[in-house]
Design brief:
This protein has eleven helices and no strands. The protein is an all-alpha fold.
């Protein structure tokens, strides 16, 4: 077993299944006690989500809203949108932009993100249920590699590994990558050394985040 895959099994043993992506409709499942943030909406060992178009769209816009902020703030923004019945692409486009911006204010950069949500909502409607191509997502203003891969992995169950700041930090500390390694260098490292299974990709990404947060708390 290679070093990357061994690390996955080590983290899984340490922290147990994480159950990402958190969803508002899964809040009844309660908190996962292994979570450093103890947020609601997780579904450990249940990879059947998203189960509806609403949940799929929620994951997509959550991936956009979480840019440069933490999930606690994203959850507040999503709950505000839910109150407006706006976890829906058509509704997003129908809302006056300033009202949309105020609803997502907790997520930060609310004016920019309101514009991003508008652009993405129009694109999403054009998909008409199709799985988006990664290159098409990357061509959308405001969507970079991490956001695109999050959308594909969690909303569409496509085996695209998500590389975030936590991943970079952990692998640098393990001397697996150099500190200046780019996204397009790190992503293939995982995908070449793991089974091409979206469930493993989802779990591993979530475990890395949990591990990084746990280390930070200890320090």
């Amino acid at each position: 077993m290679n070093k990357i895959f061994s690390f996955y099994h080590q983290l899984l043993k340490m922290y147990s299944p994480q159950g990402w992506w958190p969803l508002l409709e899964c809040e009844h499942l309660g908190k996962n006690p292994t979570k450093t943030g103890s947020m609601t909406g997780y579904h450990p060992n249940d990879f059947s989500y998203p189960k509806s178009e609403r949940q799929r769209f929620e994951i997509c816009i959550g991936a956009i809203l979480t840019q440069n902020t933490n999930w606690i703030n994203v959850e507040k923004a999503l709950k505000n949108l839910s109150k407006l019945n706006a976890i829906d692409a058509k509704k997003i486009l129908s809302i006056e932009i300033n009202k949309l911006s105020q609803a997502i204010r907790p997520a930060g950069y609310h004016n920019q993100k309101a514009k991003k949500l508008n652009i993405f909502a129009a694109y999403y409607l054009g998909l008409d249920g199709r799985i988006p191509a990664r290159e098409d997502l990357l061509s959308i203003w405001g969507i970079g590699p991490e956001t695109a891969d999050s959308i594909l992995l969690y909303a569409y169950k496509q085996p695209e590994f998500v590389v975030d700041a936590y991943t970079r930090r952990i692998l640098t500390g393990m001397n697996i990558i150099e500190e200046k390694s780019g996204y397009n260098e790190i992503k293939p490292l995982f995908e070449k050394n793991l089974p091409k299974d979206y469930k493993i990709y989802q779990e591993f990404h979530a475990l890395i985040v949990e591990h990084a947060k746990s280390i930070r708390k200890i320090r």
